[in-house]
Structure formats: structure tokens, C-alpha cells
Write a structure and sequence with these properties.
By secondary structure, this protein is mostly helical. Helix content is about 70%, strand content about 0%. Strand 1 and strand 2 form a beta hairpin. The chain is flat.
């Protein structure tokens, strides 16, 4: 699970004066691993081609990285609110405070989506109600949006401090009326969505029970899909190669996020999103490779490529001696089941030539030497010449 920052949805943000709330979150920024300015970490799961710790680890890593990107957006909005609070604006303090509160609530709404992804589908292998938790995050985001609407209503009501609106408010009271109505709508949205979130999280409720059942269905599907794509990627050899390339590209993006964070504290949220994007690129490699080498293909099942080539060419240290291979060829049904040995002799070596020596001599001669007009022959030419020489029936 990712290291996250404490959102503006903390009760202290809602209940305490704005200055106290900002003071609290700024303190968390520098001292707590759960604070808004906490270390950006690696932007997601360990991924990056490493052997998955669970059957759904690749999916979890990617979802957590996506959550980090979203979280960075929420943190950026939060920091924008703090930046506004530090400016000496030519407006009434009440209007400024409510504007900041609206920004903070919007940032908190975005954060709730991030938290739902991280603790929900981002923990698919361990959370039996992963679907319900993710849905609860969306519901809580809606609840925070209701807070934003309420704050917007208070912003409207506070407009009466501006000269251009002051007379309108004195004559009709329209600003106060509109602000109160908008604030009430926001409160209803917030309360209703919070109750919905609790329903999604409770496994004994109808919504929570449905979430548990959906999670049980989705988990094996995701596990099978991950396992299949990794096996195919490893078998085709492109898996490890692609995973390595994605790892390098993701690492570069993560470094860019580090540089942004180091330049200015105001870039903390953006840097978190950039690092999350880098981790997302990196951890995508977990879908196409197990990170344990090729694991298959023509030479991946216990017979390394160098051993195979050494066996074919008779080199030292070959795990499969050449004479053993040739013995299997001459003693097998290849020369007994319809293809007489003398016909094979004519194909590979000519009259009187050892058939096996003719074939192998042609192969190894084409691979290991030969020249054309005193110059070293092209490897492909040598191979073709060796094959045709070995199969043409010429004496060695």
C-alpha cells in the first residue's frame, strides 16, 4: 500500500478555524509520513519486473500507481489553497477564507478517489471487499464535493463585501438567499454520499455484500489474465526485454518527479503525480514478464543457448555431447523406418563417406571457417555453403 498524505477531509479542517486547519496540515507536511507533504516514495508498488508476490500483484501495482497520480492532483489543489491563503488579496478575509475552503474540499474529493483505488482494487489480493472499498472512495469523493458546494454557497454569500455587490445585497438579500440554498444542497449531497460510502464498506449490507461477491468473481479472473500474459511474454522472449525497457523509461520519469520536488515545495503535488506516472510505466512491465528470465521458448527449459550451440558444434563443456546426438540419429528409426542408410549416405557424404561425418562436417565447416577469394566469408554465406556442401553428396 502506498504512503499517502492526510487529506483536507480531516475533521479538524471542517471544525476549526481555517488558519488552525492550515497550520495542522502544514505541520503534518513536515513531520508525519501520512502528512500531505510526506515522502513521495516510489509512486506505487514494487513491480518493475520483479517476481510478483501475489497472483494479482501486477494489477495492484498499476492501480496503486494510478492512485498516486490522482493523489498528486488532490495535493496540488490543496497547496493552491495554501498559496492563496498566504497572499495579501484586496478582498474581505471571509471571502478569501471560503475560497480557500472550496479549493481544499475539492482537493479532498480527489484524494478520496485516490484512497478508494489504493485500498480497494489496489489491494485486490488481500481485501475481500475490494470493489466495495473502491466504490466507497467514489462516494466519499462525492461527499467532499458536497462540501465544496457548501463552501461555494458561503463564497456567494460573502460577495456582499465587494462594492459591486454590496448594494445588490442591501436591496434584495439575494446573495445571502442564494448562498444559503447552495450551502443546503451541498450539505444534503455530503450527508447522502457519506451514508452510501458506509453501506459499500459494510459487508453485511446489501451494497457491501454485492461488493464482496464481485471481488470474489474478479480476483481469479485477474490472476489468470496476469499469469497468462506473463507466460506468453516470457515464452516469446519479448516479455523481459519489454519489461526492462519500461523499467528504464519509468525510472527516468520518476527522477524527473524528484527534480520537481527538489526545486520548489509548491511543486510537491505535481511531483507526486509525475512520479506516480513513472511508476505506472515501470510497473506495466509486470504484466508481460515474471522477471525470472525467459522461462521458456526454444532454449528456456533447462538448456541454455550457449550449451545448445556448443553441443551442435562439438565445443568443450557442451551439456549434450555431439557423438551422443549422432548416435541417436543413426540408431533411431530415422535410418530404419523407410530411409535406408545408404540413401542417407548419398545425401550427406558421397560414396564411401561416413554419413554422419559428411553432414556434421558440412554444418561445422560452414559455421566455423572458410573464405572466399582470400577474404573471410560472410557468416550467412558460410552457413549456406556448409549446408549445401554437406547435403550435395561431395566427398570430404
Amino acid at each position: 500500500m502506498r504512503t499517502t498524505f492526510t487529506p483536507l477531509g480531516h475533521p479538524l479542517w471542517r471544525a476549526a478555524p481555517l488558519a488552525l486547519a492550515i497550520s495542522f496540515t502544514l505541520a503534518a507536511c513536515g513531520s508525519s509520513s501520512d502528512g500531505p507533504g510526506a515522502s513521495l516514495g516510489d509512486g506505487g508498488g514494487s513491480g518493475g519486473g520483479a517476481s510478483p508476490a501475489a497472483e494479482t500483484q501486477a494489477t495492484e501495482n498499476v492501480v496503486q500507481d494510478t492512485a498516486t497520480v490522482v493523489e498528486g492532483v488532490g495535493q496540488t489543489l490543496f497547496l493552491a489553497g495554501i498559496a492563496v491563503s498566504q497572499e495579501d488579496l484586496p478582498i474581505d478575509q471571509e471571502l478569501q477564507d471560503q475560497t480557500i475552503h472550496a479549493l481544499g474540499s475539492t482537493g479532498s474529493a480527489v484524494y478520496q478517489v485516490s484512497k478508494g483505488l489504493d485500498e480497494g482494487v489496489g489491494s485486490l489480493g488481500t481485501n475481500d471487499n475490494a470493489v466495495g472499498t473502491t466504490a466507497a472512495g467514489v462516494a466519499r469523493a462525492t461527499s467532499r464535493t458536497g462540501d465544496t458546494v457548501s463552501a461555494s454557497g458561503r463564497v456567494v454569500a460573502a460577495l456582499d463585501t465587494l462594492p459591486v455587490f454590496m448594494q445588490v445585497e442591501e436591496n434584495s438579500g439575494a446573495l445571502t438567499m442564494i448562498g444559503e440554498n447552495v450551502g443546503e444542497i451541498g450539505l444534503q449531497i455530503s450527508q447522502g454520499a457519506e451514508g452510501l460510502a458506509l453501506q459499500f464498506e459494510d459487508p453485511n449490507s446489501p451494497l457491501g455484500s454485492a461488493g464482496v461477491q464481485l471481488t470474489a468473481v474478479i480476483r481469479p479472473v485477474v490472476a489468470n489474465l496476469e499469469g497468462t500474459t506473463r507466460k506468453v511474454g516470457d515464452a516469446l522472449v519479448i516479455g523481459p526485454t519489454g519489461s526492462g525497457a519500461l523499467g528504464k523509461a519509468g525510472g527516468t520519469i520518476i527522477m524527473l518527479g524528484d527534480e520537481l520536488a527538489a526545486q520548489n515545495a509548491a511543486f510537491t503535488g505535481i511531483a507526486r503525480s509525475v512520479r506516480g506516472a513513472g511508476a505506472l510505466v515501470r510497473d506495466t512491465g509486470g504484466f508481460i514478464s515474471s522477471g525470472e528470465g525467459s522461462g521458456g521458448g526454444l532454449t528456456g527449459d533447462g538448456l541454455p543457448t550457449d550449451t545448445l550451440l556448443a553441443a551442435l558444434s562439438g565445443g568443450e563443456g557442451a551439456g549434450l555431447p555431439t557423438d551422443a546426438v549422432l548416435g541417436q540419429l543413426t540408431d533411431s528409426g530415422l535410418t530404419e523406418g523407410g530411409l535406408p542408410t545408404d540413401q542417407l549416405t548419398g545425401l550427406v557424404g558421397g560414396e564411401g563417406a561416413d554419413p554422419v561425418t559428411g553432414l556434421v562436417g558440412g554444418l561445422t565447416g560452414g559455421l566455423s571457417g572458410g573464405s572466399e577469394d582470400g577474404e573471410e566469408a560472410d557468416p550467412v554465406t558460410r552457413l549456406i555453403s556448409g549446408l549445401t556442401g554437406g547435403l550435395s553428396g561431395s566427398d570430404q
